[in-house]
Specification:
The complex is a heterodimer of chains A (674) and B (340). Chain A is an all-alpha fold. Chain A has one domain (54-531): Cytochrome c oxidase-like, subunit I domain (Cytochrome C Oxidase, Chain A), CATH 1.20.210. Chain A contains 20 helices and three strands. Chain A has helices at 3-12, 34-45, 50-56, 60-89, 99-133, 142-164, 189-217, 230-260, 277-311, 318-331, 347-359, 361-377, 384-407, 409-415, 419-449, 455-481, 498-528, 566-569, 610-625, 631-646; strands at residues 587-591, 598-603, 653-655. In chain A, α4 runs antiparallel to α5 (99-133). Chain A starts with a helix and ends in a 19-residue tail after the last strand. Mean pLDDT of chain A is 90; it is low at 1-27 and 658-674. Chain B is of the alpha+beta class. In chain B, the strands form four sheets. Chain B has a five-stranded mixed β-sheet. In chain B, a hairpin with a 4-residue loop joins β11 and β12. Chain B starts with a helix and ends with a helix. The model of chain B is unreliable at 1-5 and 11-21 (pLDDT under 50). Classes of the chains: A mainly alpha (674), B alpha+beta (340). The interface between A and B is large, with 95 and 99 residues.
């Protein structure tokens, strides 16, 4: 966008200047060269140099990249644990890992993959791209965003640190009482798990609030809900699911901890004192099943975002896809009992949960059909991300079909808690979420680094991961049907499970090799890759309308939007923009929820060390609770003091109106057609 | 093509290999498990068709693919093709709904059929209690309560008769599962449950705890013997007797060792002063095919190793190591081996 266009569009009045405020420091209409504007904006938005500056940044891109890198590191560690477990299971009666270590490994693997990798990385990619896709400069609560990251980092260190010190959680990622209760789970291992859960959920909830607020209030002028990319919809819907699902597991894990604390000693889950162990299972799975969709829905967002780019046409059935996501989110809360069919559930209840579990296949089917239709109507452009998309469709359908099997009470009673379910869940979570994620990392790598990843190495990595994945998990279907139960550290030679387990272990090594190749591709390409330019894939969404990597303030002038595919329907050089935001303050334009009309100019919080401090005290609160309840008043009080400082300063908010003479209120004028 | 290969090999593996083995849900030995297996075939058949069709649907557009390094031009929309596609997608969604409805009815009918045994007024009642990490099996005799049979890790049932298992746990949640006979049922402290099933094919089957229950979850196994009513009665008869009295000097010494070492703290042997129910009952230990929660064959060598250092076999097991001198150990083994 050149300054002339900016000026003409200002004259046209899209999100026009907010009266005299615009001229307070910098006169936009005067000779403001693009370089001068960039310089002023960068001075306002970039973080200060040095370690303090680095720790105090609240820029969503800095935070999101840290989130992504940290989550990938946790993924790598949890993946190594899985490789160790596969080594132990390669042959019957191996002694690579004893039961004590194996139980810690599988618990840490599951907990880390779910809480420290899958959910956070999906959210992190959202935190990076939602503001870019909706054309704003930062997320709504930048300091809270940084706080969520520090809390997440400390939590991961706690979980893996505990494992390194041989006090790793060892009661499964579900930690059912009474096994995890005070009587049968002595020591601090289950306490590490319960507070890790609470900490990650705080981080997740904070992220959800940011995403919802950012999406509802900071969309580009003209980006009505019907013009929102599916990616943004997916993030929004996921955030709502997080808000409804996560409190349930926090409640369950907190109740479990108070049961375990000698000085508190509640009996929520103690049957001897009138408690009920099934209550825990209901609370856990009321979260646990939506959790799958919390991971899966953002992944479908990646897919719906990538398919139009690589099919070279608009997504077929945008409305149907978005409605499917919403339907999935609703139905996702109504089928948790299918994890509990082997507990005493009345038959009518079983029927109802079978029906809802099968019902959820319909919105998933709608999406799959729309994706395939898009590919049919377009012309597939085969690049590495598209390979992941195609593999995703095949693998997700496979995982979905075994999901339909587990929805049936009768079949589920046989396959529940066996390797069949291990296969199913990995088809859904790796096939349905990690494959889209790997594709998305490839897709957005040029945006992050400004350089293209290598196609050839990318394809090699893809083939290794795809073959390795299927080799690992497909045989597990059969192992489960042959009676191999989950969470066993070994099995007897007479069972005949040896050969398929060996196959699965070989597959796991192949997959690990593929992921290493994938990582090497990125490490090499971020220095040596060919320069990407702003929009190497010729993609339609606003994240590709800015430089690669994006500058600290995202856009010189926030764009205004006139269609669902702004970069395809409008010439980027002629896209109308918003002017009148102050360049020397961290100002964003807030818009109305439905139609994205300009509403307020809002000053976001600046950089601060408070998120780090709050992260430390909140972490210490829960970490201390592992050992003594007094941690709550001491570190909770310290957190309160930090929050007082946090809320001390008020930000400025000004209503947007076109001319000083007009009454204040949201004003939006259509840009005249040229 | 690779995808196709996988699907074909995978299906062949499931269809062919799945029927082998003696702990397999695909090798049913009773009406409940047969019903579930048949339902599974239905689900599997539908799944294979869907998987093949979806995968195949991705192939035709790939023939028009572009592999250029630069983004190819956009494909323009044609209103008529979009309309036709809408109809096709709508039809497919409708078809999906119908298929799911059929599968749901199938599930409902299978569940109904499996529950038919609940009409039987006089099932054989067996109480199974989960322990970390073994199964206590109790055949109560309602008419003559003193004639109940208590054993561990082994269940005998007569072929063709409805059996009702009452399931409970003394510690954590376990799950009772004999894949050849029926689906699993959890043993939840505070929530006693029941499971009814029938076996229609004599044989030796294995079960295993299916709910993670701690260190030795992997080695909490169960042997199930399905036999004719006559054989079953004979077995009951034998199990009903108290433990045989030691005859030879070494056997007598063995009992003495048992009663004076830590064994007696946890184990019960009917007909002797050993009465503790903390560990598995040993009254007819020698008649059982396995020891150590079904994880070792019941041989003299295994038994000796198990008694001396159970943690070498099942690390974390509740049974302590026993420092028994060799002579005493042999005597103890002589005694235990006569407990037919």
């Amino acid at each position: 966008m050149n300054p002339t266009t900016a000026t003409t569009s200002s004259a046209a009045g899209v999100g026009a200047t907010a009266g005299d405020a615009a001229t307070a420091t910098v006169d936009v209409r005067a000779a403001l060269t693009p370089d001068r504007a960039d310089e002023l904006l960068d001075r306002t938005w970039r973080h200060r140099p040095g370690l303090i500056g680095w720790l105090s940044t609240t820029n969503h891109k800095d935070i999101a990249l840290r989130f992504i890198v940290t989550a990938l590191a946790f993924f790598a560690i949890a993946g190594l644990l899985a490789a160790a477990m596969r080594t132990q299971l390669a042959r019957p009666g191996q002694r690579v890992l004893g039961p004590d270590l194996y139980n810690q490994f599988f618990t840490t693997h599951g907990t880390a993959m779910m809480f420290l990798f899958a959910v956070p990385i999906m959210k992190a990619i959202g935190l990076y791209f939602v503001p870019l896709m909706i054309g704003t400069r930062n997320v709504a609560f930048p300091r809270m965003n940084a706080f969520a990251y520090y809390l997440f980092l400390f939590t991961g260190l706690l979980l893996f640190g505990a494992l390194a010190l041989n006090v790793g959680a060892d009661r499964g990622w579900f930690a059912y009482p009474p096994l995890s209760g005070p009587q049968f789970g002595p020591g601090k291992r289950p306490d590490v798990w319960t507070w890790v859960i609470s900490l990650t959920e705080i981080s997740a909830l904070v992220g959800a609030v940011e995403i919802i607020t950012t999406v509802f209030k900071q969309r580009a002028v003209g980006m009505s809900l019907a013009r929102m990319p599916v990616f943004v919809w997916a993030q929004l819907i996921t955030a709502f699911m997080v808000i409804f699902a996560m409190p349930s597991v926090m409640l369950a894990s907190s109740m479990l901890s108070t049961d375990r604390m000698p000085t508190v000693n509640t009996h929520f889950f103690n049957p001897a004192e009138g408690g009920d162990v099934l209550l825990y299972q209901h609370l856990f799975w009321f979260f646990g099943h939506p959790e799958v969709y919390i991971i899966f829905i953002p992944a479908t967002g990646f897919i719906s975002d990538m398919i139009p780019v690589f099919a070279r046409r608009k997504l077929f059935g945008y409305t149907a896809v978005v409605l499917s996501l919403i339907a999935t989110a609703f139905i996702g809360f109504g089928l948790w009992v299918h994890h509990m069919f082997s507990t005493p559930v009345p038959e009518l209840g079983q029927g109802m949960f079978t029906a809802s579990s099968m019902l959820i296949a319909i919105p998933s089917g709608v999406q799959v059909f729309c994706w395939i239709a898009t590919i049919w109507l377009g012309r597939p452009w085969i690049r590495t991300p598209m390979l992941y998309v195609l593999a995703f469709i095949v693998l997700f359908v496979c995982g979905g079909l075994t999901g339909v099997m587990t929805a049936s009470v009768s079949v589920d009673l046989q396959v529940h808690d066996t390797f069949f379910v291990v296969a199913h869940l990995h088809y859904v979570l790796i096939g349905g979420a990690v494959f889209p994620l790997l594709g998305a990392l490839h897709f957005w790598f040029p945006k992050w680094t400004g350089r293209m990843p290598s196609e050839r190495i990318g394809v090699v990595a893809f083939v290794l991961v795809f073959v390795g994945f299927n080799l690992t998990f497909f045989p597990m279907h059969q192992l489960g049907l042959q009676g191999m139960t989950r969470r066993v550290y070994t099995y007897l030679p007479g069972t005949g499970w040896g050969p398929l387990n060996m196959l699965a272990t070989i597959g796991a090594y192949v997959m690990a090799l593929g992921l290493i190749v994938f990582a090497c591709n990125f490490l090499v390409s971020c220095r040596r890759g060919r320069p990407a330019g702003d929009n190497p894939w010729h993609a339609p969404t606003l994240d590709w309308a800015t430089t690669s990597p994006p500058r600290s303030y995202n856009f010189r002038f926030p764009p205004a939007v006139r269609s669902l595919y702004p970069l395809w329907s409008d010439d980027p050089a002629k896209t109308p923009v918003v002017i009148g935001l102050q360049l020397d303050r961290r100002e964003v334009l807030t818009t109305t929820v439905m139609d994205a009309r300009p509403a307020y100019r809002y000053e976001l919080a600046g950089d601060s060390l408070l998120p780090l401090f709050l992260g430390v005290t909140v972490f210490l609160t829960f970490f201390g609770l592992i050992f003594h309840p007094w941690a709550l008043p001491i570190f909770g009080g310290a957190s309160g003091v930090i929050l007082m400082v946090w809320f001390w300063r008020q930000n400025t908010v000004e209503k947007v109106h076109d001319h000083p003479g007009e009454p204040p209120g949201p004003v939006h004028r259509q840009r005249p057609r040229q | 093509m690779r995808l196709w290969g996988f699907i074909v090999i995978g299906c062949a593996a499931v269809l062919g290999g799945g029927c082998a083995g003696n702990q397999s849900a695909l090798d049913p030995a009773g009406p409940q498990s047969t019903g579930i297996r048949d339902l599974f075939w239905l689900f599997l058949g539908v799944s294979i068709v869907v998987q093949v069709l979806v995968t195949a649907a991705l192939l035709p557009p790939l023939r028009r693919r572009s592999a250029s390094a630069e983004p190819p031009p956009l494909v323009p929309e044609e209103a008529s093709r979009e309309r036709r596609t809408t109809l096709v997608v709508g039809g497919l969604v409708l078809l999906t709904t119908v298929i799911l409805a059929v599968l749901m009815v199938g599930d409902f009918l299978t569940g109904r059929a499996a529950h038919a045994t609940y009409a039987d007024p006089d099932p054989l009642k067996i109480k199974v209690v989960g322990h970390q990490w073994w199964w206590e099996v109790n055949y109560p005799n309602e008419r003559e309560p003193y004639k109940g049979v208590l054993t561990a890790n082994e269940i005998h049932i007569p072929v063709g008769r409805t059996v009702e298992f009452s399931l409970d746990s003394v510690d954590v949640i376990h799950s009772f599962w004999i894949p050849n006979l029926h689906g699993k049922k959890d043993m939840i402290p505070g929530h006693p449950t029941t499971l009814r099933l029938k076996a229609d094919r004599p044989g030796l089957y294995y079960g295993q705890c299916a709910e993670f229950c701690g260190h030795q979850h992997a080695k909490m196994r169960l042997t199930v013997v399905v036999e004719s009513q006559a054989e079953f009665d004979k077995w009951m008869e034998a199990q009903n007797r108290p433990a045989p009295t030691p005859i030879y000097a070494s056997q007598k010494r063995g009992l003495e060792v048992f009663l004076t070492s830590s064994c007696v703290m946890c184990h019960q042997i009917d007909g002797t002063p050993a009465r503790s129910r903390f560990g598995p009952v040993l009254t007819h230990l020698a008649s059982r095919p396995t020891i150590a929660g079904g994880s070792l064959a019941n041989t003299r060598g295994n038994l000796a190793g198990w008694i001396l250092d159970p943690h070498a076999v099942k690390p974390g097991v509740r049974m302590p190591q026993n420092n028994i001198p060799p002579a005493d150990l042999h005597a103890l083994l002589d005694y235990l081996e006569m407990l037919k």
